[in-house]
Amino acid sequence: MKIVTIVGARPQFIKAAATRRAIQEMNRRKRRIRDVLVHTGQHYDYRMDKVFFEELKLPKPDYHLGVGSGSHARQTGKMLERIETVLQKERPDTVIVYGDTNSTLAGALAAAKMKIPVAHVEAGLRSYNPAMAEEMNRVLTDHLSTFLFCPTDQAVRNLSKEGIKDGRARVVRNVGDVMYDSILYYSKIAEKRSTILTNLGFDTRHGTRSTSYYLATLHRAENTDDPKKLKSILKALNALGKSTPTVLPLHPRTKKMMKVHHFSFGFKNIKFVEPASYLDMLALERSAKAILTDSGGVQKEAYWLGVPCLTLREETEWVETMRSGRNVLVGTSVGRIIKAASRAKARRRYLKENKMFGDGKASQKIIQILIRHSASFE
Question: Of 30, 154, 274, 351, which has the fewest beta carbons less than 10 angstroms from its beta carbon?
Answer without folding.
Answer: 30
